[in-house]
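Encode chain A's predicted structure.
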Amino acid sequence: MKPEQLPLLNSVSAPAIHPDGTKAVVSVTRPDFDADSYVGQLWTVPLDSTKHPRRITRGFRDSSPAFSPDGLVLAFLRSDPEGKPQLFVVEAAGGEPQRITHQHTGVAGFVWAPDSHRIAFLARVPEQGRYGTVEGVTSGSEDARLLTENQYRMNGVGYTSDQRQQVFIVEVPELGGEPAVAPRGRAAHEQPAPAAPGIPAARQLTYGDSDHESPCFSADGSHLYFVAALHEGHDDDLVTSVYRVDAGGGAPSVVEPSNAGLQTVTGVRASLDGRWLFYTAQNLGTTGKDFVARNGVLYVMPVGGGEATALTDEEHLDVSGPLEPSGPASVLVLNTALGSVELLDVPADGEIMPLVHGARVVIGATVAANGEIAVSLSDAATVGDVASLVRGELRLLTDFSAALRNNSRVSEPLDFEAESSDGHPVHGWLVLPDGPGPHPVLLSIHGGPFAQYTGAFFDEAQVYAAAGYAVLMCNPRGSAGYGQTHGRAIKGRMGTVDMQDVLAFLDAALAAHGAVLDKDRVGIMGGSYGGYLTAWTIAHEHRFKAAIVERGFLDPVSFEGSSDIGWFFGGEYTGGTPEQMTAQSPMAVVGAVQTPTLVVHSENDLRCPIEQGQRYYSHLKAQGVETALLVFPGEDHELSRSGTPHHRRQRFDHILGWWARYLPAASNPVEA
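Encoded structure for chain A:
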């Protein structure tokens, strides 16, 4: 894959299956260089494999499809080129979509009511005078902000304390009705024009000083459940809870388990039989902030609160939503496991049923009333496709990555396991370029740290392989998917067993594949926590020809006061004293670095603020290390995943240029 082939990456949403089980609808989105944005539409996918998928909408970016429970209406989000998604509905049989929201900041997500006549949705509510709510008042001329909270901004969003995300409810209009006509001419003088002609008025249900998430209706549609932090002292911890509010309005009330400790709840879903609340949560220890490498657990409790039962094992499973009903009292969940993402069916009482496992990453799944299951997934050969699950076997229904495979060779990752110096297993992959070798090697380290590489299609590894590099990717201690003990092994000791594991993986791969890997030409790179471990490693190991440190967590001390998560993240991972932070800080050992290092950062990164990269670059420059600082305006921490297509291509070009200079390959030679 070449950087200019980014538009061939068709990503696929979780599927919406029609209640009768005949078809699913997904959004298919891709980077577009002409728009310098992400464009995409909805596709209908018949579950009868003899019929072909087809595009059914033609918006700029249509996403998040969901059928009404009666199957008559399809709702989805449509974004204009400015990127503010609004809620649209269209008859399931086809027709012209109708817009039903007019939210200033756009709609973030939605859910149908059981009666198929109402939709609850999420939207940020800006304070008057901010975010363009007053014509002529731009962001640079708004009033000053007086901040008193820890949690006042978020990467990718900006300030949040003055635009909390709230729950709304809107009545879905009769789609066959007469379209609204805005008054014109003398009629416009006789009657005031509505702010949004033809768009029904939405009703705000929540007003709390917290972002509200994961709304769902009760089985009878009379109440809504959601997740928020509305407890006293919520700004000083990471605790969130399930709340309930009457669908007609009123004050929310907390629905608490009687036997659970401090938790951060990440999703909630009411069972179809009306008896249970399923929710996913991570335990937070005794402080309410000990989030480090906590596996997600699926719980169930009575709808009114009471004793909660853990349905999944906290040590060995790491589950997440969205929680999709699979029966009267069961839900589908995703499980991060051994470099894959599995699909599990979990009943309120009974055995967990694995539905999809192996070398795949499940994106989402839904179940029809007749038991048909549609699954979106990725693997080594596809960025995203849709399959049906028939008698335990996946049957592919789409091939949205065909153009990618037809225009470039996809290198299948080779599964590989090494043994660390203390005997701990280290699992990962080797992606090889064409040709006999020996090839120069790139040791790539993932972010997180509680995240994982998988064997599914990864654009970065494919671009580097096409340029002639063998790419090594592994999941050292600190990573997700290998048990909670594996993930928590670096708490208070970052840069110890994690560095030991990645270097052991590198050495084992070089020894096992010496014919195709050049042990004397190795580079190292990583972003976020991967940037941290890259910077830490090159201060202790001088074997690498060059390095790339991207959006790095480089100084836990200054991170504490500058990052959106700085008030808790560094202290929980490294320990909270300046001495502990310094002992695990790449900035504290930057003076030992000798490796030529490219530092990459985005100007609007609030997760790992740009000062981390700027100061690291400045120190390298001052001590005579060959270095450069690559800065992307307008981008945040997610540049490599969801930055503008132009910047994503430019990032690849600069990275390949750096490797050509210090680690040239046959397909990426030194420029003349």
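The longest strand covers residues 517-527.
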